[in-house]
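#onboarding

Welcome to the new folks! Below is a worked example of what a typical request in this channel looks like: someone posts a single protein sequence, and someone else replies with the predicted structure as tokens. Don't worry about understanding the tokens yet, we'll cover that in week two.

Example request:
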Amino acid sequence: MKVNGPTGPSAPQGSRPARQASGGFALSSGGGAAPASAAQATSAMGGVTDVCALMALQGVEDPTERRRRAIRRGSGLLDRLDDLKLALLDGATGEAALDRLARTIREERPEDADPGLTQVLDQIDLRAAVELAKAEIRRTAA
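Example response:
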């Protein structure tokens, strides 16, 4: 039996002539097509099930991936804060940097089991929220 990719096994290539065994058992040539097509239909359904299982496994997130995403988000917030600082030092209003900072802080924050990392991320989030509040005060005062 030959396997041809994700569709599963194919029917045997050569057709063998039906032999009659000594016990009187014989295969008819017409009866072999129905079981082969049923096997192909079953293997096609198995391929769909396999894909669904793979998709479900990809949705499962392990703790190291959550930690990596949390660190990436914190690093991104620090980058946005640096952009804002540079814009303010240049004398600009920093509206584009504030918009990017606001978008980044609205992103979902993955929870991590490490209390030290959680504390650092809380401090970064707080600093970003303070900068957004200060910008809002500047807007309303002007």
